[in-house]
Protein backbone atom coordinates (compact mmCIF):
# COMPACT_ATOMS: atom_id res chain seq x y z
CA UNK A 1 0.00 0.00 0.00
CA UNK A 2 1.31 3.43 -0.94
CA UNK A 3 1.53 6.08 1.75
CA UNK A 4 0.37 9.62 0.88
CA UNK A 5 3.11 12.11 1.73
CA UNK A 6 2.36 15.03 4.01
CA UNK A 7 1.96 18.62 2.87
CA UNK A 8 4.30 20.78 4.94
CA UNK A 9 3.29 24.45 5.33
CA UNK A 10 5.63 27.21 6.54
CA UNK A 11 4.71 30.81 7.34
CA UNK A 12 7.25 33.15 5.75
CA UNK A 13 8.54 36.43 7.22
CA UNK A 14 6.18 38.44 4.98
CA UNK A 15 3.11 36.50 6.19
CA UNK A 16 2.73 34.36 3.07
CA UNK A 17 2.60 30.60 3.51
CA UNK A 18 4.68 28.21 1.42
CA UNK A 19 3.73 24.60 0.83
CA UNK A 20 6.21 21.80 0.21
CA UNK A 21 5.60 18.11 -0.29
CA UNK A 22 7.31 15.81 2.20
CA UNK A 23 9.60 14.75 -0.65
CA UNK A 24 10.91 18.32 -0.92
CA UNK A 25 9.03 19.58 -3.98
CA UNK A 26 7.63 23.11 -3.51
CA UNK A 27 3.91 23.17 -4.27
CA UNK A 28 2.96 26.82 -3.95
CA UNK A 29 2.60 30.00 -1.93
CA UNK A 30 -0.59 31.62 -0.62
CA UNK A 31 -0.87 35.25 0.50
CA UNK A 32 -1.29 36.14 4.16
CA UNK A 33 -4.79 35.11 5.23
CA UNK A 34 -5.27 33.07 2.03
CA UNK A 35 -6.90 29.64 1.94
CA UNK A 36 -4.68 26.59 2.35
CA UNK A 37 -7.01 24.77 -0.08
CA UNK A 38 -4.85 26.16 -2.90
CA UNK A 39 -1.78 24.42 -1.47
CA UNK A 40 -3.73 21.19 -0.97
CA UNK A 41 -4.82 21.23 -4.65
CA UNK A 42 -1.26 21.96 -5.82
CA UNK A 43 0.04 19.12 -3.64
CA UNK A 44 -2.51 16.72 -5.10
CA UNK A 45 -1.51 17.84 -8.62
CA UNK A 46 2.16 17.18 -7.79
CA UNK A 47 1.31 13.65 -6.63
CA UNK A 48 -0.60 12.98 -9.86
CA UNK A 49 1.94 14.42 -12.31
CA UNK A 50 5.43 13.89 -10.87
CA UNK A 51 7.18 10.88 -9.38
CA UNK A 52 7.14 11.55 -5.65
CA UNK A 53 9.96 9.85 -3.76
CA UNK A 54 7.82 9.46 -0.64
CA UNK A 55 4.68 8.15 -2.37
CA UNK A 56 6.51 5.82 -4.76
CA UNK A 57 6.36 2.18 -3.62
CA UNK A 58 9.66 1.49 -5.42
CA UNK A 59 11.43 4.27 -3.54
CA UNK A 60 14.97 3.29 -2.68
CA UNK A 61 15.72 6.09 -0.22
CA UNK A 62 14.44 9.46 0.88
CA UNK A 63 15.82 12.48 -0.97
CA UNK A 64 19.10 13.67 0.47
CA UNK A 65 19.58 17.22 1.58
CA UNK A 66 22.17 19.16 -0.40
CA UNK A 67 25.27 20.12 1.59
CA UNK A 68 25.79 23.67 2.76
CA UNK A 69 23.83 26.31 4.58
CA UNK A 70 20.41 27.24 3.27
CA UNK A 71 19.55 30.82 2.39
CA UNK A 72 16.14 32.40 1.75
CA UNK A 73 14.92 33.06 -1.79
CA UNK A 74 14.35 36.82 -2.15
CA UNK A 75 11.15 36.20 -4.16
CA UNK A 76 9.27 33.46 -2.30
CA UNK A 77 11.15 33.18 0.99
CA UNK A 78 11.70 29.44 0.49
CA UNK A 79 14.97 27.78 1.37
CA UNK A 80 17.61 27.55 -1.38
CA UNK A 81 21.22 26.44 -1.67
CA UNK A 82 23.70 28.32 -3.84
CA UNK A 83 25.98 26.33 -6.15
CA UNK A 84 28.73 27.55 -8.44
CA UNK A 85 28.97 26.39 -12.05
CA UNK A 86 32.32 25.65 -13.65
CA UNK A 87 34.35 28.56 -14.95
CA UNK A 88 33.80 29.45 -18.59
CA UNK A 89 36.09 31.24 -21.06
CA UNK A 90 35.31 34.57 -19.34
CA UNK A 91 36.57 33.56 -15.90
CA UNK A 92 34.67 32.44 -12.82
CA UNK A 93 31.52 30.36 -13.01
CA UNK A 94 28.12 31.76 -12.15
CA UNK A 95 26.05 31.11 -9.02
CA UNK A 96 22.73 29.27 -9.35
CA UNK A 97 20.03 28.73 -6.71
CA UNK A 98 18.98 25.12 -6.10
CA UNK A 99 16.15 23.59 -4.12
CA UNK A 100 17.62 22.23 -0.85
CA UNK A 101 16.93 18.53 -1.44
CA UNK A 102 17.54 16.10 -4.27
CA UNK A 103 14.78 15.66 -6.83
CA UNK A 104 14.29 12.77 -9.31
CA UNK A 105 13.35 15.19 -12.11
CA UNK A 106 16.27 17.53 -11.43
CA UNK A 107 18.42 18.47 -14.41
CA UNK A 108 21.41 19.64 -12.37
CA UNK A 109 24.28 17.44 -11.21
CA UNK A 110 25.44 18.67 -7.80
CA UNK A 111 29.01 17.97 -6.72
CA UNK A 112 29.73 18.49 -3.01
CA UNK A 113 33.11 20.15 -2.41
CA UNK A 114 34.87 21.04 0.84
CA UNK A 115 33.44 23.28 3.59
CA UNK A 116 29.84 23.36 2.38
CA UNK A 117 30.65 24.67 -1.11
CA UNK A 118 28.83 22.91 -3.90
CA UNK A 119 29.45 22.94 -7.63
CA UNK A 120 26.78 22.28 -10.23
CA UNK A 121 26.55 21.42 -13.89
CA UNK A 122 23.50 21.27 -16.12
CA UNK A 123 22.66 17.80 -17.36
CA UNK A 124 22.05 17.26 -21.07
CA UNK A 125 18.59 15.99 -22.02
CA UNK A 126 19.79 12.38 -22.35
CA UNK A 127 22.36 12.50 -19.54
CA UNK A 128 22.00 11.05 -16.03
CA UNK A 129 23.95 12.15 -12.96
CA UNK A 130 26.56 9.83 -11.47
CA UNK A 131 25.00 8.82 -8.11
CA UNK A 132 28.37 7.66 -6.74
CA UNK A 133 29.76 11.24 -6.72
CA UNK A 134 26.86 13.57 -7.57
CA UNK A 135 23.44 14.45 -6.19
CA UNK A 136 20.51 15.18 -8.51
CA UNK A 137 19.41 18.75 -7.92
CA UNK A 138 16.69 21.01 -9.24
CA UNK A 139 17.14 24.66 -10.12
CA UNK A 140 15.03 26.95 -7.96
CA UNK A 141 14.48 29.06 -11.10
CA UNK A 142 12.14 26.28 -12.30
CA UNK A 143 10.27 25.80 -9.01
CA UNK A 144 10.05 29.23 -7.37
CA UNK A 145 6.30 29.81 -6.86
CA UNK A 146 6.81 33.59 -6.92
CA UNK A 147 8.40 33.57 -10.40
CA UNK A 148 5.79 34.51 -13.03
CA UNK A 149 7.21 31.86 -15.41
CA UNK A 150 6.09 29.16 -12.94
CA UNK A 151 2.51 30.40 -12.50
Report on this structure.
It is a single chain. This protein is mainly beta and 151 residues long. It has one domain. 9% of the residues lie in helices and 27% in strands. The chain contains 1 helix and 9 strands. Strands 4, 5, 6, 7, 8 and 9 form a 6-stranded mixed β-sheet that branches. A 3-stranded antiparallel β-sheet has the order 1-2-3. Strand 1 and strand 2 form a beta hairpin. The protein is globular. The chain starts with 6 loop residues before the first strand and ends in a 14-residue tail after the last strand. The model has no long low-confidence stretch (mean pLDDT 79).
Features:
six-stranded mixed sheet, 9% helix, single chain, 27% strand, mainly beta, 9 strands
Radius of gyration: 16 Å
Helix fraction?
Answer: under 10%
Low-confidence regions: none
Termini, distance in Å? 33 Å
Question: What gross morphology would you assign?
Answer: globular
Percentage of residues in DSSP E strands: 25-35%
Structural class: mainly beta
Q: From N to C, what is the helix and strand string?
A: EEEHEEEEEE
Number of domains: 1
| Nearest-integer average pLDDT | 79
Largest sheet, in brief, is: 6 strands, mixed
The beta-strand count equals 9
Q: Tally the helices.
A: 1
Region (Disordered): 127-151
Amino acid sequence: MTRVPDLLVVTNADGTRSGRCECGVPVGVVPAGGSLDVLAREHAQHLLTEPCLVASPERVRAPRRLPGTGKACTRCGGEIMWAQTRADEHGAGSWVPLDPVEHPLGRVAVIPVARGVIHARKLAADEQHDPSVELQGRSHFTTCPADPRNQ
